[in-house]
Write a structure and sequence with these properties.
Blueprint lengths: L3 E4 L7 H12 L4 E3 L6 E5 L3 H11 L8 E3 L15 H10 L4 E6 L6 H4 L4 E5 L4 H10 L3 E2 L14 H8 L5 E4 L10 E4 L6 E4 L5 H8 L3 E2 L1 H7 L20 E6 L2 H17 L4 E5 L11 E4 L6 H18 L3 E5 L6 H12 L4 E3 L3
Parallel strand pairs: 1-8, 2-8, 4-6, 5-9, 10-11, 12-15, 12-16, 13-14, 13-15
Antiparallel strand pairs: 2-3, 3-7, 4-7, 5-6, 9-10
Helix pairs in contact: 1-5, 10-11
The structure holds threonylcarbamoyladenylate (TXA) and magnesium ion.
Length: about 350
């Protein structure tokens, strides 16, 4: 299929192009668009046939439910059975923004969206192009990240074009995503809300507003230090570049020397090595493909750079990526979750 490309400037949004993209959505087509977290691949959430096209274009397993995007807080009411008090407080604080909430779904939400679950995930993004597109389309928009299933999420228009050109009706190119990791998914159907995916709004941020919050066990289990991914269920690959990724965590000086040691060993075996470093540490490496994701002094830059850097290594055709770990707090918790998933939880503690 021919994919229409709409280039839109976030500073000066072309209403005509938004109208054309919104028409495609209204008539059952698929449109990829920028959000502040990552690019999404949208379709009318109330049109089962349209939503099916998302799963086909991405090669996404049908048992993975989708997030429904709205352009205003009122639109939520039709989609859910009830809005718990804590959800109301969180919405006031964090919407529009990178927080997805899980509610009990209303009957108008098709089963294909929720993968048969009795719940639905909803988010109001803050990106002006996303908001305008959803508003103009006049319907709630289902949108997973706009990548081929299993690949790193797209944070630039070119990433989406690389993955989905020819597979979707239109792609809106609208700059780089400012957050760079996906939204936090929080289940608010429970008395104590549970984080199902760490993301752009941190657990510390949420705790400050509503007090107690739990973290789904599978997140930390997957992230524990000495997990060797032997069981097939644990080894699900996500955010994966072509190369295999090894994350090295611990005291920074030891991390650097461990990575250098591994680089020498693997290079001797004939592998082409990539090193995922930071502004502060890149000078300590040589004789390999060295890329900085951002500055350790500003975790926001690291979140923004992660997926783009993983994709850049694909272009360099490296065999193994040795990645420096980041402290697992604040936004760093979400970054490490993605990094470890991209490595299939292949993580080494430096100094051991
Ligand atoms: O930042 C984001 O959330 C981006 C942008 C485009 O908004 N979207 C995104 O969608 O990351 P996706 O499909 O890549 O991830 C959605 C996550 C998945 O982990 C899915 O399992 C979870 O949300 N999810 C969706 N509906 C759910 C439900 N009813 N219960 C539990 N988890 C759900
Ligand atoms: Mg995704």
């Amino acid at each position: 299929m021919e994919t229409k490309i709409f280039d839109i400037n976030i500073e000066d949004i072309d209403k005509n192009k938004i109208d054309m993209a919104a028409n495609i959505l209204r008539s059952g087509g698929t449109v990829a668009f920028p959000t502040e977290t990552v690019y999404g691949l949208g379709a009318n959430a109330l049109d089962e046939k349209a939503v099916k096209k998302i799963f086909e274009a991405k090669g996404r397993p049908s048992d993975n439910p989708l997030i429904v995007h709205v352009s205003n807080k009122e639109a939520l009411k039709d989609l859910v059975k009830d809005i718990p008090k804590k959800a109301e407080i969180l919405i006031e604080e964090f919407w529009p923004g990178p927080l997805t909430l899980i509610f009990r779904k209303s009957d108008i939400v098709p089963d294909i969206i929720s993968a048969g679950l009795p719940t639905v995930a909803i988010r109001m993004p803050s990106h002006p192009i996303a908001l305008e597109l959803i508003r103009k389309s006049g319907v709630p928009i289902a949108a997973p990240s706009a990548n081929i299933s299993g690949k790193p999420s797209p944070t630039k228009g070119e990433h989406v074009v690389n993955d989905l050109d020819g597979k979707v009706d239109a792609i809106i190119i609208g700059g780089s995503s400012s957050v760079g990791v996906e939204s936090t998914v929080l289940d608010v159907t429970k008395d104590i809300p549970v984080i199902l995916r760490p993301g752009g709004v941190t657990k510390e941020d949420i705790r400050e507003i509503i007090g107690k919050v739990e973290i789904d066990k599978s997140i930390d289990l997957g992230m524990s230090d000495d997990i060797i991914p032997m069981s097939p269920g644990m080894k699900y690959k996500h955010y994966a570049p072509k190369a295999s990724v090894i994350v090295v965590e611990g005291d920074l000086e030891k991390v650097i020397s461990k990575i250098n040691k591994l680089k020498n060993e693997k290079t001797m075996l004939g592998y082409k090595i990539g090193i995922l470093a930071t502004e502060e540490t890149k000078k300590h490496y040589e004789n390999s493909v060295i890329m900085s994701i951002g500055s350790r002094k500003n975790i926001d830059t690291i979140a923004r750079g992660l997926f783009d850097t993983l994709r850049k290594f694909d272009k360099e055709d490296v065999d193994i990526i040795l990645a420096e770990g980041i402290e697992r707090k604040g936004l760093g918790y979400a970054v490490m979750n993605r990094m470890l998933k991209s490595a299939g939880y292949n993580v080494i503690k430096a100094g051991d």
